[in-house]
Write a structure and sequence with these properties.
- The chain is of the alpha+beta class.
- It has one domain (5-350): Chorismate synthase, AroC fold (4-Layer Sandwich), CATH 3.60.150.10.
- It has ten helices and 16 strands.
- It has helices at 32-43, 51-54, 113-120, 126-132, 137-152, 174-183, 213-222, 241-244, 314-336, 342-350, and strands at residues 5-9, 16-22, 59-63, 65-66, 69-70, 75-80, 157-165, 190-197, 227-232, 248-251, 254-257, 265-266, 269-270, 275-281, 292-295, 300-303.
- Strands 1-2-6-3 form a four-stranded antiparallel beta sheet, covered by helices on one side. A four-stranded antiparallel beta sheet has the order 7-8-14-9.
- Helix 1 packs across helix 5, helix 1 packs antiparallel against helix 9 and helix 5 (137-152) crosses helix 9.
- The two termini are 23 Å apart.
- Bound molecules: ligand EPS.
Length: 351
């Protein structure tokens, strides 16, 4: 069941990125500054490459809002790619502009190049790189920032933090770890945590596989480029049942827990505790010191394609994950307290 849904479009070096969001009730005030703050957080992590000096992500609202408030119609968001001015010919939509400049045929192991080129029958791997690029997470963060604003109306808030970069779990050494990897032409992944608090009990459901909130969150996080692991709450491996499950106590007639190993979800539903999600991002597969690969045109072994990229994007990934989870939660809130205008939803919530 979808109430808050969206589609995005846009290539990494194309004109820009667009999202159409459907399901935002009428009469909701969208704060553009709040969206731009999250866009800047996504851009500012340590370990990004030269592209971040070019882009200054700012969102524009193209439809669905009048005088600051939503109309109930689809809301369109747009972010310009400032780098497009350097790629206009290469990324042209017109047949007559055809050029082989910046085309490449040497697969990057770990990227979408190989399977994507087989699937879409492309020999210029740029036709795969452009959309499989993590650039598109900018517009996803913008959509998530709108979802966060909906959640804020219900006093639901979130934060994220980095747990590990490469092999290093000591915050004070993260930057030097990234510097070392950069020096060797290598890249690093890492682990981060996202926490949402003050969620009402009963978002999601156990009645069908596709309504379980943990399943929906796992899908939303796993679809962020390079994410390979999602954990909800504490990893249960090795715990006994008596140690793992969060016992219940009464405090002045209120049910309380002293632990939150479940990470705020039991039976596919929120249980009123903090929602705690951890995820692991793999190292970025575009390497300055390239891996062995095959050239898809010459069908010869060679070194993988390299072009300007990031050394580490785990900080950005954590901001993207906040956005993704916010969209899943906003959908659940709108389903549970549904209405066509925001006043109606708040009334349903307060009942
Ligand atoms: C990316 C490669 C780099 C990143 C980009 C994602 O871009 P470029 O090849 O233009 O240097 O900077 O990320 C962004 C542009 C962004 O906004 O996050 C990739 O191949 O996935």
């Amino acid at each position: 069941m979808e109430k808050f849904r969206f589609l995005t479009s846009g290539e990494s070096h194309g004109k820009g990125l667009t999202a159409i969001i459907e399901g935002i009730p009428a009469g909701f005030e969208i704060d553009i500054n709040e969206i731009n703050k999250d866009l800047q957080r996504r851009q500012s992590g340590y370990g990004r490459g030269g592209r971040m000096q070019i882009e200054k992500d700012n969102v524009e609202i193209l439809s669905g809002v009048r005088f600051g408030k939503t109309l109930g119609s689809p809301v369109t968001l747009f972010i310009e790619n400032k780098d497009f001015k350097n790629w206009e010919k290469i990324m042209s939509t017109k047949m007559e502009d055809f050029t082989e400049e910046k085309s490449f045929s040497k697969y990057r192991p770990g990227h979408a190049d190989f399977a994507g080129s087989e699937k879409y029958n492309q020999k210029d791997l740029r036709n795969i790189l452009e959309r499989s690029s993590a650039r598109k997470t900018a517009i996803e963060v913008a959509v998530g920032a709108v979802a966060k604003q909906i959640l804020n109306k219900f006093s639901i808030s979130c934060y994220s933090e980095i747990i590990q970069i490469g092999n290093c779990a000591d915050k004070k050494d993260f930057h030097s770890e990234i510097d070392k990897a950069k020096e060797f032409g290598d890249t690093l992944g890492g682990k981060f945590e996202v926490v949402f608090s003050n969620l009402p009990i009963g978002l999601g459901s156990f009645v069908h596989w596709d309504r379980k909130l943990d399943g929906r969150i796992a899908q939303a996080i796993m679809s962020i480029p390079a994410v390979k692991v999602v954990e909800i709450g504490e990893n249960p491996l090795g715990y006994k049942g008596s140690e793992y499950h969060d016992q219940m106590f009464l405090d002045n007639g209120k049910i309380v827990r002293k632990t939150n190993h479940a990470g705020g979800i039991e039976g596919g539903m929120t249980n009123g505790e903090n929602l705690v999600i951890k995820a692991v991002m793999k190292p970025i597969p575009t390497l300055k010191k390239p891996l062995n690969t095959v050239d898809c045109i010459k069908m010869q072994e060679t070194e993988a394609h390299f072009e300007r990229s990031d050394t580490c994007a785990v900080e950005a990934c954590a901001v993207v994950a906040e956005a993704r989870i916010a969209c899943v939660l906003a959908n659940e809130i709108l389903l549970k307290f549904g209405g066509d205008n925001f006043e109606e939803i708040i009334r349903n919530y307060q009942k």
